[in-house]
Amino acid sequence: MAIAESCTGGFLSHLITSVPGSSNYFLGAMIPYDYQIKNATAGVKPETLEKYGAVSEPTIIEMANIVRAKFNTDIGVATSGIAGPGGATPDKPVGTIWIAYSDKHHTVTKKLQLSKDRMINIQTASMAVLNLIRQSLPQ
Fold first, then answer.
1. 96-102/2-5 β-pairing
2. 112 and 132 Cβ atoms separated by less than 8 Å
3. Strand 76-81 relative to strand 2-5: parallel, antiparallel, unpaired?
4. Distance CA 37, CA 21 (A)
5. Cα-flanking dihedrals φ and ψ of residue 12, to 5°?
6. pLDDT tens, residue by residue, 66-85
7. How far apart are CA 103 and CA 48, in angstroms?
């Protein structure tokens, strides 16, 4: 598994690596926090960012698929959102966060509408990704 986490800023990676034995399934992560880095490092298409923005379903799908390909893993997950307290727009208030799971068979996304509290948003989004992984793994 590999992660592209933006709004969670490494917290999701911290949760995963705090479990003994995680090196058996976790290859690494990138933190494309800045808009330009989402394009230059994470490989999100400029047209996706221009048309939909960094906090959107199309962007999070690209991030999850790209991190899976770049790290050559079976699973890629991604986060992008507005943790707060700033950065909100009328159509994307603080607490708007997209998460995604990608494997070779499918990509699953989820939009979260969380709180105005930055740390709660980071923690809740990270836990939501762990749950999304659990729900999306092949049975």
1. unpaired
2. no
3. parallel
4. 30
5. -65, -45
6. 999 999 999 999 999 999 99
7. 21
Cα-based distances in Å from 3 to 67, 89, 99, 122, 137: 6, 26, 11, 15, 15
Q: Which residue has the tokens 């709004």?
A: 7
Distance of alpha carbon 57 from alpha carbon 99, whole angstroms? 8
Q: Which domain holds residue 20?
A: 2-136
Phi, then psi, of 101 in degrees rounded to 5: -125, 135
- What is the C-alpha to C-alpha distance for residues 81 and 48, in angstroms, rounded to an integer? 15
Task: Please report the pLDDT score of residue 28 as a whole number.
Answer: 97
Phi, psi angle pair for 53, to nearest 5°: 90, 170
Q: What is the CATH number of the domain that holds 10?
A: 3.90.950.20
Instruction: Single out the residue of 24, 28, 13, 30 nearest to residue 130, CA to CA.
Output: 13
Residues 6 or more apart whose CB falls under 8 angstroms from that of 128 comprise: 97, 99, 110, 112
The predicted-structure confidence for 30-46, as pLDDT tens digits, reads as follows: 998 888 888 887 789 99
Q: How many domains would you assign to the chain?
A: 1
Asked if 49 and 57 touch (Cβ cutoff 8 Å), the reply is no
Q: For residue 110, give both structure tokens.
A: 């989820």
